[in-house]
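Design job #97: recover the sequence.
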């Protein structure tokens, strides 16, 4: 399909949730927010148990609450072979000194609804890869009217989300770009689209191939901050992972009866990855990818055995209707997505997978030790004694924050046997859920008004769920804890949060930041009321949480916390920006993905701006007199999400993932609401942003 450039026809943005369109709600998560929250547990808040007013002394006295016997970790499993030419990512094994100054001197851009990428004066941007661009050498050129699953499996997938770059040389000239592909929108993918039922089976297979991940070799353009795909040579690392790529399970639940199917009676292998949202980079040079809204891909929940229904329901799978609202109809192309015939197939999704981008022939591994839920991602830092600590959020209203601490310590060497050892670190450890206590609990009325002590803050603890091959939740086996992690966290009384998405440790300070995107059900009739860590009812705009682990050790089981930013219009009295002058900050709504620049400044990507303007990328210092000074750096086109951003190690490039441009109710490929990036129809894309004179991003 070819089309001449034309201006976009702006369509009305009909009510979805927050600032999302109804179309986004349908395809992103199967209309999750239109259904009751899956968490109907009546677990007590830890704050309630200790009478809401928790001092550090009181918290320590109450440390036995929920405490369970901790067993010995399991032995390590077999290792993978180490690849050649891997360049370890800097900054994961200790603090980095600043490149020079930490100033964010750019002039913030104003909110807007333009159908283009807007950056500050002096900056430029260009597309690196768009949906359908060749990834694997020999891939055909993209044609919208001649799509095939075989072609899509070699081309850049749809709706790029989290991304990261891994250096391939020591001169900053070449790198691997690794990108998640979260979901597809057939309305915007196929000319003449009418209904899901009218899709051909081949078109369903195209959508399946457009999921997963892409690994692409890229190179710097000249001496600028611009990057482009390598277009010559073998490009031996380039790879597509799809919804049908063979993978294997690791850890205590691998081989569980709950993971076995007719096609995989061993319960150790699985085909594909679904709804890959955010991720993380490991110190040994692999990437982690989180499977999020996997529930929407399955039908037939009404016919599963009665004993399996409560757990499926807790994960948002409809066990009443054969064809739930928002179903993707994938069972037409692959029968394993029909739970009436394959009731365990859904248990094989909702994991953190590890991919070795330096070995294109390796099978990705789904790590059961990290638990199963709607993973946004997993971000890693090392504890004081060298163990791996992974932080994770479960992106659902009233669900939980988690962390995993490995049993074994990371080896810092660069020999093949060191990397082989490190590749086993996520296979055994302790999985925790977070419980928050409050210093001003009775003062919280849902209005967002700060309590008398001038801060939303408190203390908390990490409640252990499983260690190695031992369950720490009474009445549940370790396999049940790891496969039904939500139920385990319900049982121990974890704190219900406002959609915890990306949870990222600052590698400079060890502090941990969580994006609580929004929760319009907070404080509604029959729903949990506002509390100090979720301080607003009808929380349309979200907030950012800061966790400081006790003793400065990320393996600690207790912490303090504060909320530095309560998002929204600065003119709204319910907003808060760490005490900074609100007349000088940019409006920000629905924080989603988090990243840090070379100086430790926080960069926030938004999803579903409920203030009426386009989503974007924001920067904010976390320390000093500028703490809380949020400044908008970039806006994305009409209907798009600022899915994620990653700052290069030299701080000269911002790699930015722009998802679902033009995803507005009534839009289609034939009648686009956005024509970004090429002037014909909308295509999700990854861009690079750089300063024209070579300065650092933000300076």
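Job complete. Output follows.
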């Amino acid at each position: 399909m070819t089309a001449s450039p034309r201006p976009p026809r702006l369509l009305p943005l009909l009510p979805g949730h927050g600032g999302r369109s109804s179309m986004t709600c349908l395809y992103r998560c199967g209309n999750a927010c239109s259904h009751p929250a899956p968490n109907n547990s009546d677990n007590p808040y830890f704050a309630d148990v200790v009478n809401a007013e928790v001092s550090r002394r009181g918290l320590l006295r109450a440390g036995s609450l929920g405490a369970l016997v901790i067993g010995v970790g399991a032995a390590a499993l077999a290792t993978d072979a180490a690849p050649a030419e891997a360049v370890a990512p800097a900054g994961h094994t200790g603090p980095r000194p600043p490149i020079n100054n930490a100033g964010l001197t750019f002039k913030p851009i104003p909110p807007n609804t333009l159908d283009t990428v807007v950056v500050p004066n002096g900056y430029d941007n260009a597309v690196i890869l768009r949906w359908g661009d060749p990834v694997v050498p020999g891939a055909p050129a993209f044609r919208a009217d001649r799509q095939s699953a075989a072609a899509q499996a070699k081309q850049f997938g749809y709706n790029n989300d989290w991304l990261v770059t891994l250096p391939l040389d020591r001169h900053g000239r070449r790198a691997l770009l690794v990108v998640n592909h979260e979901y597809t929108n057939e309305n915007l993918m196929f000319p003449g689209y009418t209904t899901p039922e009218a899709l051909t089976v081949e078109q369903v297979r195209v959508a399946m191939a457009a999921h997963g991940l892409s690994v692409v070799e890229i190179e710097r353009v000249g001496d600028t901050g611009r990057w482009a795909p390598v277009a010559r040579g073998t490009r031996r690392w380039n790879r597509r992972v799809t919804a049908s790529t063979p993978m294997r399970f690791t850890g205590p639940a691998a081989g569980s009866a709950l993971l076995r199917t007719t096609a995989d009676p061993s319960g150790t292998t699985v085909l594909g990855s679904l709804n890959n949202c955010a991720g993380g980079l490991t110190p040994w040079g692999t990437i982690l990818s989180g499977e999020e809204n996997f529930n929407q891909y399955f039908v037939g929940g009404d016919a599963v055995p009665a004993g399996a229904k409560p757990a499926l329901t807790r994960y948002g799978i409809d066990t009443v209707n054969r064809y739930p609202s928002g179903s993707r109809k994938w069972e037409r192309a692959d029968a394993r997505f029909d739970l009436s015939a394959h009731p365990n197939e859904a248990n094989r999704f909702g994991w953190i997978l590890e991919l070795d981008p330096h070995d294109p022939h390796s099978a990705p591994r789904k790590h059961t030790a990290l638990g199963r839920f709607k993973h946004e991602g997993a971000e890693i830092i090392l504890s004081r004694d060298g163990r791996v600590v992974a932080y994770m959020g479960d992106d659902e209203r009233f669900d939980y924050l988690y962390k995993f601490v490995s049993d074994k310590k990371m080896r810092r060497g660069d020999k093949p046997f060191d990397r082989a050892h490190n590749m086993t670190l996520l296979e055994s450890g302790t999985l925790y859920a977070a419980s928050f206590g409050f210093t001003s609990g009775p003062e919280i009325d849902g209005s967002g008004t700060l309590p008398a002590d001038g801060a939303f803050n408190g203390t908390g603890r990490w409640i252990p769920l499983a260690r190695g091959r031992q369950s720490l939740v009474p009445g549940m086996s370790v396999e049940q804890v790891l496969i039904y992690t939500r139920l385990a966290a319900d049982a121990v009384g974890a704190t219900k949060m406002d959609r915890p998405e990306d949870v990222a440790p600052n590698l400079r300070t060890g502090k941990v930041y969580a994006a609580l995107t929004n929760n319009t059900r907070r404080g509604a009739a029959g729903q949990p009321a506002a509390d100090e860590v979720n301080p607003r009812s009808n929380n349309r705009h979200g907030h950012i949480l800061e966790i400081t682990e006790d003793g400065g050790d990320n393996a600690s089981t207790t912490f303090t916390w504060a909320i530095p930013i309560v998002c929204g219009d600065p003119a709204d009295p319910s907003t808060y920006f760490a005490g900074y002058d609100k007349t000088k900050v940019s409006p920000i709504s629905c924080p989603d993905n988090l990243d840090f620049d070379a100086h430790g400044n926080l960069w926030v990507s938004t999803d579903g701006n409920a203030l009426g303007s386009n989503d974007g990328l924001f920067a904010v210092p976390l320390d000093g007199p500028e703490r809380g000074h949020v400044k908008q750096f970039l806006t994305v086109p009409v209907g798009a999400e600022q899915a994620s951003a990653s700052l290069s190690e030299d701080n000269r490039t911002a790699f930015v993932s722009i998802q679902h441009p033009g995803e507005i109710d009534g839009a289609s490929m034939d009648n686009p609401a956005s024509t970004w990036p090429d002037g014909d129809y909308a295509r999700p894309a990854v861009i690079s942003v750089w300063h024209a004179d070579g300065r650092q991003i933000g300076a």
